[in-house]
Design goal:
Mean pLDDT: 97
Number of helices: 8
Number of strands: 10
Largest sheet: 7 strands, parallel
Shape: globular
Strand content: 15-25%
Helix content: 25-40%
Structural class: alpha/beta
Bound molecules: fructose -6-phosphate
Radius of gyration: 17 Å
CATH class: Alpha Beta
CATH topology: Rossmann fold
Length: 256
């Protein structure tokens, strides 16, 4: 893992945005895995401002709530179109987001996996992290080899996401999410985390044992994972000084 600690969420986001911008310039038909929630909002704003060419880009989102129509204001379909897609020149046919209203969830999930493979696999997967260590909606105890499937959200996640729905009761119980095995097949993972509420989960993911109790910890096994943090999210890392030194002293050829 490469741990990149910046003073603010804005600065950490800029590192991530530069990485994605470089990928899209070098590979105009790149396949991106995308996340929703508060964390990537700054990233999407910065990517929009960079005016990149998205015509040939294909995207796959990590997850969607079961039972929410694409038009529901809190669906991840609405989120993605509102916060990124409608502002860039992406082709609608190249956008993939799990269908929370599908009648046949297992069949839908198998097709989603096939579509990722048919697109050539994900070049770069953007990830946030839950306060319980989830990536996508792979909650603690998820199989580290899991594929796209239905999952039940923990009470903690429903509580965390109540801010979007007005009340905890309104947060759906189920979601469709890419599996941890699916995420691990991305050529590159880019995990973002900001704010003090993420510090415990980040410390466990980066410096703790690899365990299904903190699904993000599996990224320790991924050969190319960058973790972009602000100071608050990095606050519980024991080796923060080392990570800072490494990033600040990278040889030029190795820099983002
Ligand atoms: C969303 C997703 C989740 C979020 C996580 C953090 O697509 O996959 O793993 O990244 O719940 O959410 P925020 O960013 O709202 O704190």
């Amino acid at each position: 893992m490469e741990i990149i600690i910046q003073p603010t969420a804005e600065a950490a986001t800029s590192v991530a945005a530069r990485l994605i911008a470089r990928l899209l310039r070098e590979k105009p038909n790149a396949v991106l895995g995308l996340a929703t929630g508060s964390t990537p909002l700054l990233l999407y704003r910065e990517l929009i401002a960079l005016k990149l060419d998205w015509r040939k880009v294909t995207t796959f989102n990590l997850d969607e709530y079961v039972g929410l129509d694409a038009k529901h204001p809190q669906s991840y379909h609405s989120f993605m179109w509102e916060n990124l897609f409608r502002h860039v020149n992406i082709a609608k046919k190249n956008v993939h987001i799990p269908d929370g209203m599908t009648k046949d969830i297992p069949k839908f999930c198998a097709t989603y996996e096939k579509q990722i493979r048919a697109a050539g696999g994900i070049d770069l997967q953007v990830l946030g992290i839950g306060t319980d260590g989830h990536i996508g909606f792979n909650e603690p105890s998820s199989s580290l080899a899991s594929r796209t499937r239905i999952k039940t959200l923990t009470q903690q996640t429903r509580k965390d996401n109540a801010r979007f729905f007005g009340s905890e009761a309104a947060v759906p119980h189920h979601c469709i999410t890419m599996g941890i095995g699916t995420i691990m097949e991305a050529r590159q993972n880019l995990l973002l985390a900001f704010g003090p509420k993420k510090a415990r989960a980040i410390a466990a993911a980066v410096e703790g044992p690899i365990t299904a109790m903190n699904p993000a910890s599996v990224l320790q096994l991924h050969p190319v994972t960058k973790v972009c943090l602000d100071t608050a999210a990095a606050a519980r890392l024991k080796r923060a000084d080392y990570y800072r030194w490494v990033y600040e002293n990278k040889p030029e050829w190795q820099q983002i």
